[in-house]
UniProtKB/TrEMBL annotation:
Domain HhH-GPD: 56-203
Protein's UniProt keywords contain Lipid metabolism: no
Top-level taxonomy: Archaea, Methanobacteriati, Methanobacteriota, Stenosarchaea group, Methanomicrobia
Domain of life according to the entry: Archaea
Protein name: Endonuclease III
SUPFAM superfamilies with a match to the protein in the record: DNA-glycosylase (SSF48150)
Required cofactor names: [4Fe-4S] cluster
Any GO MF annotation of the entry: purine-specific mismatch base pair DNA N-glycosylase activity
GO terms for biological process, alphabetical: base-excision repair; mismatch repair
Keyword DNA damage listed: yes
Family according to the record: Belongs to the Nth/MutY family.
SMART domains for the chain: ENDO3c
Length: 288
């Protein structure tokens, strides 16, 4: 009844103070009872640690981040340690996270902050957006969680909540339709509010048919099995173990097409993972 009631009131009356209060109360009651309060990164006000967690959470599920995050922070406890980290040590610490390019971008970001901002992480989303590997949603999430800034933004879990409660019968819902609601519902404590929204959105994913399928921004994630991403992970693991390798040998080990593996290794060399030497030999970059 709550969902249909909120939706009906929104359609008939628009965004009213009572609608805002009722929705806020519902979200915060859910958070108090079922929120994910045990996440380590929610028990710190260190902007660096929060930034690292937000980069990790971009494309990796919470349970996996929960395992890797504390070890990563222990190894690289501040922005300066990350900025000067050895290339192989960084990639080894990132193993298991997937989307390994994020690790390289995270170090580039750390170097910019260390060199240009004296190690102090900017609190302005517009400035954060200029840093390597930071997109619009991540720039705002860092501002909200690290600095409690009252920013308005949408990411996948937030989108799921607002479509479910206010656009349940609509198709191809554009984020521009959601933004006025996201803005109006934002209370003074933006940090806790966004935690609550994200936890509610995560819960909805398993409770109802994914509302995000009715978003204009929705794209179905491609299968990992047999993807270039899977091969990239296999190549990187072997390079971290062996420090060098050849596409033909890796292709044989992984039962993949040598040309495909060569194309992927060339791309990874261009991204800064490896150095291609004469012939078919690729070496893991060393040092910083």
């Amino acid at each position: 009844m709550l969902v249909s009631g909120l939706r009906t009131r929104f359609r008939e009356e628009g965004i009213t103070p009572s609608l805002v209060l009722d929705f806020q109360q519902h979200v915060m009651e859910f958070y108090a009872a079922k929120g994910r309060h045990d996440m380590e990164w929610r028990h710190t006000d260190d902007p660096y640690k929060i930034l690292v967690s937000e980069i990790m959470l971009q494309q990796t599920q919470v349970p996996r981040v929960a395992v890797i995050y504390p070890k990563f922070i222990e190894k690289f406890p501040d922005i300066f340690a990350l900025a000067k980290a050895d290339h192989a040590d960084l990639l080894t610490a990132w193993q298991g996270m997937g989307y390994n390019r994020r690790a390289l971008n995270l170090q580039k970001l750390a170097r910019v902050i260390a060199d240009e901002y004296g190690g102090k992480i900017p609190n302005d989303p517009a400035v954060l957006l200029t840093l390597p590997g930071i997109g619009p949603a991540t720039s705002c999430s860092i501002a909200a969680f690290a600095f409690d800034r009252p920013v308005v933004f949408i990411e996948t879990n937030i989108r799921r909540v607002f479509i479910h409660y206010f656009f349940e019968e609509d198709q191809a819902v554009d984020d521009r339709e959601l933004l006025p609601l996201v803005s109006a519902m934002l209370p003074a404590n933006s940090r806790e509010w966004y935690w609550a929204l994200m936890d509610l959105g995560t819960a909805l994913k398993s409770a109802v048919k994914n509302p995000n399928q009715r978003s204009r921004q929705y794209t179905k994630q491609k299968s990992f099995e047999g993807s270039d991403r899977q091969i990239r992970g296999g190549v990187l693991k072997r390079m971290l173990d062996q420090k060098s390798g050849m596409p033909e040998l890796f292709a044989e080990e992984m039962d993949e097409d040598p040309e495909r593996v060569r194309r992927i290794m060339d791309a990874m060399a261009g991204e800064g993972f490896f150095v291609r030497e004469e012939g078919e030999i690729y070496r893991l970059k060393t040092g910083r």
